[in-house]
């Protein structure tokens, strides 16, 4: 039973120029149109253009009759709509638009009596038509030629009849509130009970409702946005993978020659650079010290996990521990079986086998050095009896 | 000790007995156990960072504290977007300075105790005439992607007459073609990359006749690799016409090209033709010649084709074609990545076009999956998906699904950069603000603000409007403190919005504390604007409406004395205030003054009202005369201003 529902069916049969005018009347001052970007000025121009077309079609003959017809049909439509209200399901969740109205009309006292729906609506004393619209109408009438005055009045009367519709909205400010109360309940499914009373806490008087909804015009923000758009779930599904194939690669001809050229890319450096840049895209300032350490590890600034004491010993990777530890066999062949030299060399081997800082290569070289050294001094050693003359 | 010796003697039997007693309660089955083999699982090879990654996955982002990168000190925790940026970049600037000093004074950094040697910690090698150069040096530099050094070494070896193999020429060509002869951002400068706006300009930035082309010419045999590298480089930097010329050359000379090269051409095909269908025709030609020459397409082909389609997204057939392309590649066994979905979104969800629910269908497909980066455009998906949820579908439910996907696994690293992240949250936030009731919205607010997201002034305005609509004044103190931290207090629009919200507040007995807080806010607004630096560039200037709101709030919240200070300033410095104080604010102050029997104020309010040309001033004076006993001085002042007629009339 609200103004809202009056407008809803009207808007469903779009692009009637006259309805566009109504939209302009409704939205001209309050704010943007549904489409958003159009200013009211532009919208008026558009409306006039469309009206022009409409009028042109009906111009040639019986201008007056058309005028009457139009008025009659407009009223008839309105009546039909009002009648259909009773049967139509109330749809409080889906008011079609933000319904701001020109301030001029809000200033006059709001008639709280709800009109008898079936009776004809009385014409308001002086429906307000914006001066811009007036002058635009005149221009249109002039551009059409013929009986300028008649055309103009015809256009204006059409406009007025819609202004009546428009002002009809303003009549039921209280209905508005009720409507939105309903919406609020819908919207706050989780906690409907506490949401509302808290809002009204500061307003014990019945006029509180008016403060909540400002001057009868609902604040855009208080409505869920989905109102202006259809619920996405009701839209047609897009089957992403269900379309027909293009048939370029899947066609018969291409399948034959597929194995002709190797697929792998030959641009090694290019691919490496691309990979590098890709990885950089996901390197972000680290979130915690673990991710920071991951980055450092990848940059080679940290020892890699799991840490053992062989990190970075690339040279020695293929060398077994036994080669480090068991060095005795290197003495075979040149070292005397007993005596001080043997004793000394065994100590050298023990020392080397415990040294983790030398590579096996160097240990061998070390032993080699002793071997050569003792060889050089062989004469002297024999003299001293450190080695037996005949082994 | 006993166990030790026993184990030493018969370890196997003991182990068996132990296993029996612990695992087999059933005696009958115990005899079978000895015959069962113990299967030792294969060693799972782990990457060097596997342990760290496992540890890191246990730590989630703590929204209640500042980001890890900031200094761990509440005093140094940034709040506003600007300070976040400044703090992070300053920290990095310090690192850069240190590195600069190190590189400038390389001679002092010769002590190398570390084993293994960590290259990142030592000064960069510089190359000059005296350096000992070889092909190997160049190759290493190419591997490290240090473009400028590689170019230097190349030029040095040219002048020294060092022989380089064709192989190195080819590698260097690929490198300079990829980076367009410029050094990439060092991988250490994480913050710079994070704050850099990742959107590169779509215009020709290719260095014509640069080193890449020189190298190309100097190659003795120009095969598909050489052509491929040059075409890819030109296409990547939008030197489209010449890339196309080279492609034609290849066709003439019958040089086969690889998939990557075709992809790069497909990506820029739209720049070569004008009308929608001609552009698509060209893409199709390229795809067909790919198929004919037996090059198997890859994920890059799919994404480049869709990118080409997204450039003609206003074309009526684009949507249908995009789905066909996806289906085609699906049948080839190529799985789409996030970039693919990003292009789908840009094609299907146009600002002016009809509403498409493709995002929901995409989400149905990829919900709960984890993604690795596969295409540079992968990082555009989340921000675009959130944009679509807010502006196209206007559905918080979808937005929440997108957000959930973003927080699945490691997907968050695909958010892109700080720019995309903040746009992502801006959309999410604004959508939540306009759809949720204020309590639920504030939950999100408290979760994200200030450490994850700092609302921009425009978003804060939306929040303020929501507060105003819901009359949820209890959140104002918190929001005002946040606005101070976010440095929003020097914005005219926000300040007047705050003041107008404050006027709606009706104090009552039960919320005295809130009344006091709101009065503090109003007074804070006043002092902040009054004390702002004279030399500031964008100074906030008072207007009549703001002063009126301020007066109303102060009077309503019981700060009558403070409102007098404001009124005094407004009368003495009226020239600093744009417009006049609206009459309802004056009336409120007047009524309060009458109640307090403050004739002085009443008279000055009346004088101000007269100056401002408010019609209702006469009424106010009458009221004042009937309710207060005015001194002679005040009487005289009023009568000189309003004329004796008015005064006599009332008495």
TrEMBL record, chain A:
Keyword Metal-binding: no
Cellular location(s): Mitochondrion
Keywords: Mitochondrion, Ribonucleoprotein, Ribosomal protein, Transit peptide
Extent of Basic and acidic residues compositional bias: 60-80
Single GO molecular function: structural constituent of ribosome
GO cellular component, one term: mitochondrial small ribosomal subunit
UniProt-annotated stretches for the region Disordered: 60-108, 190-229
Primary localization: mitochondrion
Family named by the database record: Belongs to the mitochondrion-specific ribosomal protein mS31 family.
PANTHER family: MITOCHONDRIAL RIBOSOMAL PROTEIN S31 (PTHR13231), SMALL RIBOSOMAL SUBUNIT PROTEIN MS31 (PTHR13231:SF3)
Protein name: Small ribosomal subunit protein mS31
Organism in which the protein naturally occurs: Cherax quadricarinatus
UniProtKB/TrEMBL annotation, chain B:
Pfam family, one: PPR_3
Any one Gene Ontology cellular component term annotated for this protein: mitochondrion
BP GO terms, sorted: mitochondrial translation; regulation of translation
Repeat region (PPR), residues: 223-257
InterPro entries per the UniProt record, alphabetical: PPR_rpt, PTCD3, Rib_mS39_PPR, TPR-like_helical_dom_sf
A molecular function GO annotation: ribosomal small subunit binding
Keyword field contains Glycoprotein: no
Location(s), subcellular: Mitochondrion
Main location: mitochondrion
Record keywords, A-Z: Mitochondrion, Repeat, Ribonucleoprotein, Ribosomal protein, RNA-binding, rRNA-binding, Transit peptide, Translation regulation
Domain of life: Eukaryota
Keyword check for DNA-binding: no
Gene3D superfamilies: Tetratricopeptide repeat domain (1.25.40.10)
Family under the similarity heading: Belongs to the mitochondrion-specific ribosomal protein mS39 family.
Protein's recorded name: Small ribosomal subunit protein mS39
